[in-house]
Write a structure and sequence with these properties.
With 209 residues, this protein is an alpha/beta fold. It contains six helices and six strands, in the order αββαβαβαβαβα. It is globular and about 65 Å long. The relative contact order is 0.17.
Length: 209
């Protein structure tokens, strides 16, 4: 019994060290590509705005959604970006992240003609790869929160994109469960890319911007 407990302890420790190591790799290899100031971020013609739900589970306003939309609109109005791909989940007629992002950006003064909708951004990997393979962009700015920028950039770098990220927040402290989720998601991203060679759920025909 003691031997089994020791083996379990060793396995748990090894997995924990692996997860921490993969997270360190992702953060350390991408942190220089993240910008927090409008005055510092290099201009890009196209931005990839990553989707999230407009509402929280409780029905309130999702601060991550609000921050991303406001950041994208400000970048556009200042001329730092010229066009925005809004990429998100469109799983049902009642849940449509790209449509919600489009409406929010229009309310913030971004013209509809400067927005392209990607309805198949089911995961970060899907959104990033589709930006290159479907929408023909290999030089772009990713817009999301700081904690999410590292993983998105890691995927972009793997697929050969010349990408930077603009953080819609300023390294805000994450709720415990979201922090754990992101730590695990980063580890999964490494396996998706380097072990399983994961592809987007849908690609389809190219759509120029």
């Amino acid at each position: 019994m003691i031997r089994i407990i020791k083996i379990v302890g060793i396995v748990i420790t090894a997995v924990g060290l692996l997860v921490l190591g993969l997270n360190f790799w992702i953060v350390s290899s991408t942190q220089d590509q993240i910008y927090y100031s409008l005055n510092d971020v290099p201009p890009k013609r196209v931005a990839l705005l990553l989707g999230t739900s407009k509402r929280t589970v409780e029905g309130g306003t999702n601060k991550y959604f609000k921050e991303r939309m406001e950041a994208a609109a400000e970048l556009f109005h200042r001329g730092v970006i010229k066009h925005i791909i809004v990429s998100g989940d469109n799983r049902t007629v009642y849940y449509n992240e790209p449509r919600d992002m489009l409406n929010a950006l229009k309310e913030l003064g971004v013209p509809e003609g400067a927005i392209t909708l990607d309805y198949a951004g089911f995961r970060t990997l899907d959104s990033v790869v589709r930006a290159k393979e479907v929408f023909g962009q290999d030089d772009l700015m990713i817009i999301t929160q700081d904690f999410h920028c590292y993983r998105a950039l890691f995927i972009a770098n793997y697929h050969g994109l010349n990408a930077v990220a603009y953080s819609a927040d300023n390294k805000d402290e994450l709720p415990y469960m979201l922090a754990i989720r992101e730590i695990l998601a980063r580890s999964k991203a490494v396996f998706d890319l380097y072990v399983f060679d994961e592809k987007p759920k849908f690609l389809g025909e190219e759509e120029g911007i």
